[in-house]
Amino acid sequence: MVDKLLFKLAGIKQIMVKLAGLTFLQALLIIGQALFLSATLTNLWLGKSLSSQVVNIVGFSLCFLFRQGIDLLNSKILDDYARKSAKDMRKKLLEKLFVLGPEVVQQQGTGNLVTLTLDGIFQVENYIKLLLSKMIGMLLIPVLILIVAFWMDLTSGIIMLLVYPLIVLFMIILGFAAKAKADQQFTTFQRLSNHFIDSLRGIDTLKYFGLSRRYSRSVYRSSENFRKSTMQTLRVAMLSTFALDFFTTLSIAVLAVFLGLRLIDQEMALFYALSILILAPEYFLPIRNFANDYHATLNGKNSFHAIAELIHSPAPKKEEVELTLWQNKDQFQLNDVSFAYDEQNKLAPLSFAASGYQKVGIIGMSGSGKTTLINLISGFFTPNSGTFKVQGHELADLNAAAWRKQVLYIPQTPYVFSDTLRNNIAFYTPDVSDEKIWQAIKVVGLEKLVAELPDGLETQIGSGKRALSGGQAQRIALARAFLDQKRKIMIFDEPTAHLDIETELELKEKMMPLMENKLVFFATHRLHWMHQMDHILVMDEGRLVEQGTYAELLAKNGYFCKLLKEMRGTKDAE
Amino acid sequence: MLNKLTFFKALQRDSWVKPFLRHYKKTLWLAIFLGILTFICASGLMFISGYLITKSATPPENILLVYVPIVLTRAFGIFRPLLHYLERLTSHNWVFKMTSEFRKKMYDSLEQDAVFFNNKYRLGDILGLLSEDVAHIQNLYLRTLFPFFTVCGLYVFISLGLGIISPLFALWMLVLYGLLVVALPLWSVLVNGARQEYEKKVKNSLYLDLTDNVLGVADWIFSERTGDYIKRHEENEAKLLDAQAKMRKFERKRDLVGQLIFLAIILSVLVWATNRFGGSQSEASNWIAAFVLCVFPMADAFMPLSNAAQETNVYLDSIERLNKLPQPKESQKISQVITEPLTLKISGVTFAYSDGHRDILQGINLTLTPKEKLAILGRSGSGKSTLASLIRGDLVPTKGQITLNGIDVTEFGDEIAKYIGVIHQTPYLFNTTIVNNVRLGNEAASDQEVWDVLKRVGLEKLIKKLPQGLETMVDEAGLRFSGGERHRLALARILLKDAPIIILDEPTVGLDPITERALVKTFMEVLQDKTLIWITHHLQGVDQMDKIIFIEDGEIVLQGSPAKLSQNKRYQKLKQIDEGY
Fold this sequence. Notes:
- The structure holds two protein chains of two kinds.
- By secondary structure, chain A is of the alpha/beta class.
- Chain A contains 18 helices and twelve strands.
- In chain A, the strands form three sheets. Chain A has a six-stranded mixed beta sheet with strand order 6-9-10-3-11-12, sandwiched between helices.
- In chain A, a hairpin with a 5-residue loop joins β1 (331-340) and β2.
- In chain A, α13 (434-444) crosses α15 (470-483).
- Chain A is elongated and about 115 Å long.
- The mean pLDDT of chain A is 87.
- Chain B is α/β, with parallel strands linked by helices.
- Chain B has two domains: 2-198 and 244-324, ABC transporter transmembrane region fold (Up-down Bundle); 344-429 and 493-578, 3-Layer(aba) Sandwich (Rossmann fold), CATH 3.40.50.300.
- In chain B, 61% of the residues lie in helices and 10% in strands.
- In chain B, the strands form two sheets. Chain B has a six-stranded mixed beta sheet, with helices on both faces.
- In chain B, β4 (399-404) and β5 (407-408) form a beta hairpin.
- Chain B is elongated.
């Protein structure tokens, strides 16, 4: 219940002291309010006039007002504090995300990370607010009321004291029962709730089979099943609120009857009896508030822990190394580099060397390990063993600022930001002149697109705006590469896999000149690119099976030739 | 002033929230009635306790004189939690029942445009939004509408009850409680409504912006500009936090005003009760404490209303979005029946989207005789896929006509599935067993028939190896069908359907050449007896077709048999590249 992580927040101790002080004051006002009201009612009952009770009534009103005033102050302090903490946390989280990079995005999913950063932190904000105020309220107010109750009437005090642990006990027991029940149903639960999404995702397939109209009934039926199983769970889950309600109201009822009987026996005065009756609901109020918000805080707690874990996850150690601008004489080497993450990302130890402005082709079928190798070279993955050697420096991985500064990375679908065309093209070089941009547009063949756009360079493109085709996105990536002449290392990961052949050809014509005077790593399963490569790495099932120039590989008549044959469906190789 | 309350405006032309209130009326009334009773019991408990204690203090000569109050105290004490529990169950049950109908309506609405669902809406977005909308509408009922109806009922009950005892005082209470029921929520919506609107907008753009940039994180890192982004994010975030702080400030103030009104109610009751019952210690003066104490539990009912009213702004988008969905139409049942062999004729077809400027397709003429095999080549965006939609009758040509044995394809309605089957780029596998997925083709197919088609598409061995065989869930951990295998499963489905004409809409995009080759080979083998329309972006395997057409900018620029085209320079060049020369 008490979350240790919470106490690690900056400034939390001061806030808690402040809140505790205010809550203590509030408890006194609650008691004052009850006593003044009780005195008023007792005197009025005795037949005294209203005017004689002005002092008591004013006392009651003032206590009531100040109590609400403190409430306001309390929540203001908490609001401000929670907002500030949330803001700090969001900043830390973002900074971390942008350090960890694509690897963590891939692992956790974009949607999940965005939700965590925005909604998750709003939940945490709420969690901090609720937990602090409700917890302090629950710890202080009942205790003070109980002291007053004991002072007024021992037996009433004992009743109140005994009921409290009973409530907590039953809530815990029923809470566990509900949880077990919910766990039990979780799988059916999920399947049913996914059914609706599933049928929407496949709605076109259903239509193609002429089944979509009939499927409507199935949607209804499964939703009804969902309702039935949810209701079964809710029946148990709501019992814990019921138990809380039941014990609090019943104990007020019991107290009332009990006080009545003591009054009949003339064992106590009306003033005390009324005070205790008025205080009883206040005694239970904090725990009821706490229980009401308990579920809301659960989400907050989970998000809080998930966020803290991300923030404190170790950032990959950045290699500190000085590299000079890549030149034709420079050397690049992989020595026995291996990697294992899961079935898809696995590499047996491999070595190769490249130098200067060589073009290195990486060829292989799906799942052969091309992308894993590319991720190692671009510095996103850290190898399990082996080393890199760049310009004579030995490095454990390529997650080094000096390396990245020189790299142009072009994936299968280059990301187009939701921004203007201009900003997208000049992403790596924000200060570039319009003249240069127009030049880049010509070089990569984007003139036709610009002519079609209503506002030319200033047109908003990207998701939700004007979507671009795969070929156009590739051209934007190439334009970025053209503008940033300081980057001499190009890494391509399947840049044309999903394009139609004519677009691929056109792009190839634009791409080849851009690869001049650069060190290029080019991963693809399209064989025709290999003619233009100086050195070819042939990958199969996570292993580097062959390497050499095109001619060397043909001469070997090994796996590369087999690939060629299989592709053409002919037995005779070139 | 009501015009400012966009929520009411949205409700006026709403067809997604209001109609459901008419469903299951009994349960709905029961839930509201139970809600009212719950608060009456809570109030009644304090009322009768106050009476019991003051009466006991008289003190009565005999305990039997307070017997009725004692029983009532206990009854209220037990009934309040019980009624509350039942009320919650009833209202949740009602909302879930409504949700079932709601989902069905949503599905029916989207079904009309099913084929274009994936293009029209960005899938992730719309699914997220739709399930969020369902949750929002549920909350609207549970957290705003039900409590509001309940409090209104309670309000009427208090006014009537006091009206019997003292009409003038009842009128005064009508005013004070009215402030809590009407004025305060209205004030909240008016003041915070605009802020909430703004908050929502900023939050939304923050969402889009963050998603956009998390997706592009690699570029931020490589360009070493992450600092720029974080700064930009913080500036936008500050706007949001500022709006939220203002909202919270207002809420705190408003709650204080609410409490002040409540204090006025307590004091009014105190004064009224003393005037009415006080003056001397008597049987009557027992009622003073009863009336004063019973006011306190009312805070639980009336105070949350303002926040609930304010929340309606959050649901507004959902209501508006839902109302923009097309209304489900009744299906028209005129379908034509034709028998094989089928001849498909495309004559002079031109197509443009109603909002588009240029024609997607222009004057296309084609005839496909039974069992003829046609390949359609062209760049993405050249109109290939549009042609497929036109052939299935999902789109209607602006000019020209497409007929099957002389009957316009649009006249077949859903029955077209009998004659034309489609495998598209990303065949969808439903989250159910393999056999259920295959049986989509023919629900009456026997296990033997299912195995037969699986054998033909080359999946028999793979599935026989699975411990649960045909009953394996397609997406269960450990078993992920690869791209090629998914297409094979989709092919099995189509074979079971046994339609005479099959459209393959770029089924091999993104596959590596060897997988592609093997898949194309299977397609050709098993679809030998069918009329085949194969839309493709590679030339792999096209020489096995009878006819090839190239579409460019909506027109057929090149056509002929593979033998004839192999004389063509352009065709030769593309083919060479595709084969890796």
